[in-house]
Amino acid sequence: MTEHHLRVGAAVLPITPPLGIDMLGFVNRMRAGTGYGEPMEVGAIAVESGGQRVIIVSIDMAVCPLDRAEEIRASLSRAGSCPKHAVLINFNHSHGLPGFPAAVKLGGQYPEYTLKERMFADYVAEMAVSAAGLAISRLEDAEMELGVSAVEGLSVNRRERTKDGGTILGWNPDGVCDRSVQTVCFKRKDQSVIVTAVNFACHPVVLGKDISEYSSDFVGPLRKTVKQVLGGECIFLQGAAGNILPLEGFNQSKGKEVEFGTKLAMKAIESVLNPVEPATVMEKFDFASTTPISLYRKKVMKPAFAEAQPVISATEQWICLPYEKLPARQDLAAEIERREEQLAEVLANPDPLTSPNTVRYHIAWAKEIVRTIDEGSLQADVEAPLQAIRIGNLGICAAPGEIFNEIGLAVKERSKAKVTFYCGYSNGVLGYFPTAAEYAYGGYEPSVSHRGYGQPSAFDPQCESILVETGTRLLNGLFNE
What we know:
Elements: E1 7-14, E2 35-36, E3 41-49, E4 52-59, H1 66-80, E5 87-91, H2 115-137, E6 140-141, E7 143-150, E8 155-157, E9 159-161, E10 167-169, E11 180-187, E12 193-200, E13 213-214, H3 219-230, E14 233-238, E15 244-246, H4 256-273, E16 280-287, E17 293-300, E18 312-322, H5 329-348, H6 356-374, E19 381-391, E20 394-398, E21 402-403, H7 405-414, E22 419-423, E23 432-433, H8 444-447, H9 463-478
Parallel strand pairs: 2-13, 4-5, 12-14, 20-22, 21-23
Antiparallel strand pairs: 1-3, 1-6, 3-4, 7-11, 8-15, 9-10, 11-12, 16-17, 18-19, 19-20
Helix pairs in contact: 1-2, 3-4, 5-6, 7-9
Protein name: Neutral/alkaline non-lysosomal ceramidase N-terminal domain-containing protein
């Protein structure tokens, strides 16, 4: 590695599943993939300076268990000759994508993971390593620019309040919603673009369950537009999107995902063309004509130590995330019996509004938790990595779950970085992490969602403060150097 200059390499590779693999996320979807929509990719960026290297990988898959993510990170670490805590994997989370096999399957035609699905997951993991290897082989001198733009009219808080004081999934326009897009653009000396990374928080569910095509949803059109306008490669890093939906989501026909992705891309491009870092000043020049004319030009303000290039550093802490309350075995057994009777009724009397998958979802979860109880492996908490990365004045905080938007915003607001990416769905996906205040309103995330991730219970409300305080401390610690 060079000791001074910033060096960056990037690579993007297609990943195309064979037909007949389930897409995950919509529990009531009953069909495996029958076609192809917005393309799937793995993208990798390698960044090094001052003897330090970080690798950032974006994978178009819906979910990934923690242990599998750790295996992939270990492979990337070996391939990239850097410590594992300097490797970040972020998952798109489009519901039009397959996922890495987990304890419970989130919908699909097949109740269990098929051999074809497991083989495809292995292939994706290998392609991620290949993309990282290519990115490293393409390392070259680079400069970086950071940008932020406001994005209106695309996303909304989904925790809609009901008249009885509860919550359903829908629209909550008064709820917290981070409507900003962050970018980092790495350029060559001639200002041609090597790669742009875009960070935004929103579930990629513009398309609904009726679309049986593999699709990266709005992310595909976003990347395509950024590359067409700016050149170079583009990767997307999903944000704290646990409670954020597209304003117009779950569409029954295609098209809206292209509109969403294109609009978001234009805002990302705007942030690249008007960066907040490096800072600029306007220089004045006199121009002689029939009358005096003043000309003004932007000039980048580079500090005296610019030749040293940005500080590159990374850190990680494994944190203990407690569950709210563990279930009793007898209650699980009773639910299994009740749900199996319900499933038999649904299968005997088919109803287009009632999917057998929604019943199987609960049965699979209860049986999985009974298994862990019987083998003595049920725990009251789970350990998971919380990661922070610094690249110059860019800070990245990465957490392994569907993080509520308020948590990501809290870290960003406290960050010492000039621009901060908060990346949920990173280094594995454990489940939902709501804010403590939202538990009183019930609803999907704090009450039911843990079942789809094979967790025995929702995570305890105190996890909000653990994620905010630890994430902020790790990130700001890198900027105290």
